[in-house]
Batch of 4 targets.
Target 1
Amino acid sequence: MAAAVLAHRSSEIASPTIIVSSSGTSSWHIGEGAHPLSQATWQSAGYRHEHSARQFSAESFAALDLILAMDQSNYANIIALATGPQDHQKVVLLRECDPTATSDEVPDPYGEGEDAYKSVLVMIESAVSHLLRELTQEPPQA
């Protein structure tokens, strides 16, 4: 869901260019599409996105500038694959970007109902809005 929101919202900004990819930290569901409730939730909010599950690997660090983790477990799994401090610096919990968040984790709504997915979408939208605002700000002049 976060990839759908970020891909859509980042397409609305001129700079920086943001290329969004999504992967999990386990091998579950590799090659499968998005969970039907997740996809229905982002589509009903107006987001269009294609998704096929794949697994994050240590090689992913070389291709990515920023890695957004949804929760502490995923964060720890990603950090465990890091090869050095330069990789560690690329990993951030998505909700850490949102100063209004009451938690630094996006809960996994898997196995819950539609309301849980909608609640997660609201969290993601807020965090993505703050992230994009931060990324598009001009650096201070020296």
Note: The chain has a mean pLDDT of 90.
Target 2
Amino acid sequence: MSAVRKPFEQDLYDRFDNPAKAALVILLEREGHVIPDLTEDYYADIVSTKNGVTYYSEAEVKRAWDSDWPSTWSEIRIAERKTRLLKKYNYNVTFYVFNRDINMCWCIRGSQMTEDTVREAKGRFIPKGEKFFHIPYTEAELLTV
């Protein structure tokens, strides 16, 4: 049986991908990362180096999050399909989940995304049966752009 996944939406990708990556570049460069190339290869959004170490970073936008993090949301959800990045980079990938305005994000390390955090999620735009990593927001770092 194949995994349940929301179909790719080109219009959302076109609307949010480049702005989220641009914000991520700002965050990473502010932390001293060097980003030699931004060519799309359909793996990690940004590959950077800092102090001789290579870092892999993935940006995404949670459209339902607009200003402050809602007090009723206890966790940050990242689609289970991102497992391919975790495996490719041996869990050495960091996920940045931005709000709709792309001026804040949660930073989540790949090592936090373990099999025991994967379960089905419910939501009006989530197909029944789609699985996500569920990371408590208290275990993530909130950053501002």
Note: The chain has two helices and eight strands.
Target 3
Amino acid sequence: MRILFYVLRNLHLPHMMPVYEWMTANNVCGSELSFSSARFIPSTTDRAGFGLESNNIRFLIERGIKWIPEEQIIPYHPDIIVMADADFMNGIDRIGARIVNVNHGLISKGIFYSDSPLTGRENSADLICVPGPYHRDALKRRVYKPVIVSGLVKFDRIFSGEITRDTVLNKLGIDPQKKVILFAPTFNKELSAVPIVTDSVCDWVSDDVHLVIKLHNASPPEWFELYRLIGDSDPRITLVDDLDITPCLVAGDVMVSDVSSAFMEFIALDKPVVLLNNPLRTRFIGFDPRDIEYTWRRVGLEVDKTEDVPRAIEISLNNPAERSNIRRLYGTRLIGPSDGRASERIGKAIWTLAYADSGKRFNEDRVLTDQQVKI
């Protein structure tokens, strides 16, 4: 049984690697696990990039992961292909393998978890794994394929205690006594806070406050260069250029964002957010005011002007418990189970799908039954 993890974009790796690692550690069915990706195309101001850069591929190979070049996927003949995005299948849905979509975000952008006909693309998968009950219920309007609530894979390391604030700050060289502002914008120029705030982020910091900037991985190179220069000139500002934002979420005390999934992940940890509105947002091709990134904005302090951001940050730092009730209410619906077992649920579901025709199930000792995972 060959199970291939196909990475459409590098930001999908944090949603797929924990599943791969859990399946590798519990591979009692003898399946062969491997990775592949789309051909690398870098991001630009107008378009998010695709695929994995050579350093990402080298990272996987050095970890002992079997790598399948994209042009060899068809002769490799995988039985199951695991993806994290139904937005652009890249022809994967036409090669005959069964597809599992583990999903990678919490919001809509007019494409995901919405009432748009585009949501019907999820039906290209044979099994869909979503973080929380909100996403399951949203898909029911357009999707007829099996959907399971797994929890948010990225959060497994948080709930297990593997990631802690002190360890993250120590790695970043930040004084744990300082408050940490996390700036985590999205990448679309019509939606992102970056074109609005640019270098005014320097006004957010003080001797008692450190700013951590974590750009969306699909952001254009010039945004990374801007904040790398700013971070190099001010020791109170750190640009984090890792694929996974999760450690930054743990380290942050308040987040400044826009309509990024990151702000939903932050409120799911019951932390305050400041949400800056891009005045061009209604021009975004997928703009839909009914999407949760707009209808749920009362979870944070919403601002329209750059000059209002510092005051909103101050309010959030001084009274972090404000809006906690609504954050916890929405957060539970977004990320589902908080037991650190999301990767396990998805891994078991993949194996159940893989061996469905033969009647074989995951190791009986591990108590996976048809009642626990129905497909």
Note: The radius of gyration is 20 Å.
Target 4
Amino acid sequence: MSAHAADSALIPSHSFALTEDQEQLCKEIREFAAREIAPNVMRWDEASEFPLEVVQKLGAMGLMGVIFPVELGGAGLGYVDYALAVEELSAVDGSIGIIVASHNSLCTNHIFVAGNEEQKRKYIPLLASGKWLGAWGLTEPGSGSDAGSARTTAVRKGDRWVLNGNKTFITNGPYADTIVFYAKLDDGSDTPLRQRPVLTFILDSGMPGLEQSKPFRKMGLHSSPTGELFLTDVRVTKDRLLGETEGQPGGREGRESAKGNFVTERAGVAAMSLGLIEECLKLSVQYAKDRMLWERPISEFQLIQLKLARMEVARLNVENLVFRHIEMSAAGKSLTLAEASAMKLYSAQAASEVAMEAVQLLGGNGYMAEFRVEQLARDAKVFQIYAGTDEIQVTHIARDLLAR
């Protein structure tokens, strides 16, 4: 059976009531994914090819600007629609899911939340249309989850800032047109590095002194470009400073925005995990029905049924976490960092476990790239690393519990 021959009727339906518009959105994404993404997934994965044309088509559909106002070129939809879009895309190709999630929730949303009107009008229409690709530059070689130890600096020189440093593991980084970039203010004082204000800037590809690396070779998500950013005396004017007023660079916005984006990013991982789990379950159910052993389909064996049942339990649990977050967002409530960490921790582990069980269920075929669960298993692993490792999530959850 080919990687995409599974019956679409096996796609689990949501246990939460969606509006007619949301159902239609899911239907349109599924049809687009079946037509434009599914036939190319294996080729993109093998060649580590960035599917620029598909990203631009997603922009034309409004999916590169799902949550942003129509007057700024967005689709004018809500967080529910964003989560559904990420879930549906991730079920077909996790690389596409993470490209869209990072572009929307980290880069573009940061500009929308923290930017002034001029910055919003300049950048969001281009990003929401898919004509420009966005990236978010926080992680450094020596400061991943410990963002407070970041060493990239911003030095004030008259009416400009001079940026020096480098970032790594930046999703969309190699091909990004717009980058939201974090730096520590260096005012020449003896203030310890960790206590220095954090500033955020909007950078454009091609700026003098800014170098974007080639994409890294990775274990999974081969079509999602991840790379490094190198800044050598990059000079920026005040119109590129996010969330601050000239003369008052207190850096509070930088720290608060990073924390807020951690919550959004970790919730997004849960939506991506749900899509991957659904695809693994769909492929596993169909294979169990088709694969014969001792003249019986293997679906009749209890050990196979146990694997399928555990996959379904994981799917339901992750779906409940995702839709709990959606309902909270609709009610104007936000997850705490600890809640987002717990959501991300469970969902990422569930995705990895389900993917490996899918490989096991397919046996030798599962280990072959042709049957796709091999790719899904590789893609799933990053969910336990991206947006903070499992161990960091545990730390954030425990800190919250111990502080009560």
Note: The first helix runs from residue 20 to 37.
